[in-house]
Design a protein that fits this description.
The structure holds two protein chains of two kinds.
Chain A: H1 2-31, H2 34-55, H3 60-88, H4 92-180, H5 195-257, H6 266-296, E1 305-307, H7 309-327, E2 330-334, E3 342-344, H8 346-363, E4 368-376, E5 379-386, H9 408-414, H10 419-430, E6 434-440, E7 444-452
Parallel strand pairs in A: 2-4
Antiparallel strand pairs in A: 1-3, 4-5, 5-7, 6-7
Helix pairs in contact in A: 1-2, 1-4, 2-3, 3-4, 4-5, 5-6, 6-10, 7-8, 8-10
Chain B: E1 5-9, H1 13-22, E2 29-33, H2 36-46, E3 50-54, H3 62-71, E4 80-85, H4 91-98, E5 102-106, H5 110-120
Parallel strand pairs in B: 1-2, 1-3, 3-4, 4-5
Classes of the chains: A alpha+beta, B alpha/beta.
């Protein structure tokens, strides 16, 4: 662009120079000044230089015009030389005539030609400017397009990249949620070949492993449940089978003692009573085994109903009084008359008291056993206190465990399976209550339990 | 008044013998049945004054037998003592619901049973 402008300037300069030269010649002729004419001839060199510069990078049409200008110039120079000779010879009129006839038209020709070059150069410049503007516009358009494409690509790439993170993370989250809910069988589907893909593959492996472990555990559990049920069923049927003949033994023995079959001598009455007491004890033990098997199998249910606390205690004492009398122990009760009708499983509460009083009788060699009940608010508080051997403090916790007695040697000394307390504890808990013991070695023990006066079905566990 | 008749429905022979021996020195007359079906038949045919019904019976269960007897006009008002098993809690409620007049849990004392019988159907001399 700069070069084009320079060319336009150069051609204008020539245009101007030609005009100036024409005037200078005329003035020189008027003044007959040879020196000026010589200057013009010297100027010619500069003029030719400028033309040569213009000729560089000129179009063919221009070049032709420039050639014509050069020819006209040569002709002009010749004319000016002749004018100069005429001036030197003082032939002014002839010189003027030559100027008017030859050099002036020649100048005009040159001027016209130069004007043409100037026009051409100017037109070229306009064209160039238009071209430049067009290419500027194209460049802007191209740049904008490129920028838009770049932004779009960047957004697309960002979107793809972020979703390539979000989708697998989301999938992983959903999958882990499934695992957390205990559904180990599922798999995660992440097709990425990156770290996410590797992570998903690990998760699937973990899931398979978990599923296998879970299945294995379930199989074991099923087997265990089956074995446990088989055990419970066996205990239930065995204790039932044991009870049937025992019922007959106890029934006939009671008939004998009732003298249905004839008079019973005092001498005979003693062993018959022993049979009766031992038989009842055996029955209690069998019932405990049966109850425990039912509790373990989850088939134990309370039969709730109204019952009299006073009657319950009386029946327990009546059942165990012969045994107490045999050991020479006092068996007393302290139950207030004003305790209202209670609601619970009377059979099970009787069984609990029978177990506690039975234990007290077993571990007490002398003294007394007291069964006391009192009502504190809505809670019935049962208490069985003995003056027996007592339990060492560090063994208090173990007495309620199944098949345990405070001292393993006790089983040999006193007999029993240690089932009574654990069953009693469970019955009390089924009533929504609790059982505990306070004891001092050598002084005796107090077993207490408290249950709601009226047990709702909702409270039973 | 005539002799009171007691029907004892029980599948175990020894248990029947105990009650048989228990009532030997009383004026009660004992008739027996070994299963629920036979028990219902004998009750409808003999019209006893009292029925002792064991709940664990072959063929027709004691509960069903009590229900059947209650729905028959001939035995609708006959006192029925249900002999429930100690092992099965809930039997007492079921027996009551079926229409039993009283219940006695096994194992029971024979003399307790006699007391209950005498309360429901006094002996005649």
């Amino acid at each position: 662009m700069d070069q084009a402008r320079e060319r336009v300037d150069a051609s204008r300069k020539i245009e101007q120079a030609v005009g100036v030269q024409m005037n200078v010649i005329r003035n020189a002729l008027v003044l007959l000044d040879e020196a000026t004419l010589v200057g013009i001839l010297h100027d010619e060199e500069r003029f030719t230089d400028t033309l040569a510069r213009l000729e560089e990078a000129a179009s063919p049409v221009e070049r032709e015009t420039i050639e014509k200008i050069r020819a006209a110039e040569r002709q002009l120079i010749k004319t000016v030389e002749e004018i100069r000779s005429l001036v030197r010879a003082d032939k002014a009129d002839e010189a003027m005539a030559l100027h008017l006839n030859e050099s002036q038209p020649r100048y005009r020709e040159i001027a016209t030609l130069i004007t043409r070059v100037v026009r051409s150069e100017e037109a070229g410049m306009v064209q160039l400017r238009q071209n430049v503007e067009a290419s500027n516009r194209r460049a802007v358009l191209l740049m904008s397009g490129f920028a838009a494409a770049t932004i779009f690509l960047a957004l697309l790439l960002g979107f793809v990249i972020s979703w390539s993170f979000i989708i697998p993370v989301h999938e992983a989250g959903r999958f882990l949620g499934q695992v957390a809910r205990g559904n180990f069988g599922g798999t995660i589907d992440v097709p990425n070949r990156d770290e996410f893909g590797a992570l998903a593959a690990r998760m699937n492996a973990m899931s398979r492993e978990l599923n296998q472990l879970y299945e294995h555990e379930r199989t074991l559990n099923t087997e265990l449940e089956r074995a446990s049920k088989a055990k419970s069923d066996f205990l239930a049927s065995m204790s039932h089978e044991l009870r049937t003949p025992l019922n007959a033994i106890l029934g006939f023995n009671e008939l004998i003692l009732g003298e249905i079959y004839g008079e019973v001598t005092d001498e005979l009455r003693v062993p018959l009573t022993d049979i009766q007491n031992s038989g009842k004890h055996l029955l209690r033990l069998i019932n405990n085994v049966l109850d425990l098997s039912k509790i373990e199998a989850g088939r134990m249910e309370l039969a709730l109903g109204d019952y009299s606390v006073q009657d319950t205690v009386v029946s327990v004492l009546a059942g165990l009084r012969p045994l107490a009398a045999q050991k020479g122990l006092d068996l007393v009760s302290a139950v207030p008359d004003d305790i209202p009708l209670a609601c619970g499983d009377a059979g099970r509460i009787t069984q609990c008291l029978m177990n506690l009083v039975g234990n007290a009788l077993k571990f007490t060699q002398q003294g007394r056993i007291e069964v006391a009940v009192d009502l504190r608010g809505d809670v019935l508080h049962y208490r069985v206190t003995d003056t027996g051997t007592g339990i060492a403090e560090d063994r208090l916790e173990t007495v309620f465990a199944e098949f345990r007695q405070a001292d393993a040697t006790i089983a040999g000394q006193f007999g029993g399976t240690g089932l009574g307390l654990s069953i009693t504890k469970k019955f009390v808990e089924m009533h929504g209550g609790r059982l505990w013991v306070e004891s001092e070695l050598g002084k005796g023990s107090t077993f207490s339990f408290e249950i709601p006066l009226r047990v709702d079905r909702a409270e039973t566990a | 008044m005539s002799t009171k008749t007691i029907l004892y429905v029980e599948d175990n022979e020894l248990n029947r013998k105990i009650v048989r021996d228990l009532l030997r020195r009383t004026s009660y007359r004992l008739i027996e049945a070994v299963d629920g079906e036979a028990g219902i038949a004998r009750a409808l045919e003999q019209r006893p004054d009292l029925i002792l019904m064991d709940l664990q019976l072959p063929k027709v269960s004691g509960i069903d037998a009590v229900r059947t007897l209650r729905s028959s006009p001939a035995t609708a008002d006959t006192p029925i003592i249900a002999i429930t098993s100690f092992a099965l809690s809930g039997d007492q409620q079921k027996a009551k619901d079926a229409g039993a007049s009283a219940y006695l849990a096994k194992p029971y004392s024979p003399f307790d049973l006699l007391g209950l019988i005498r309360k429901l159907v006094p002996e005649t001399n």
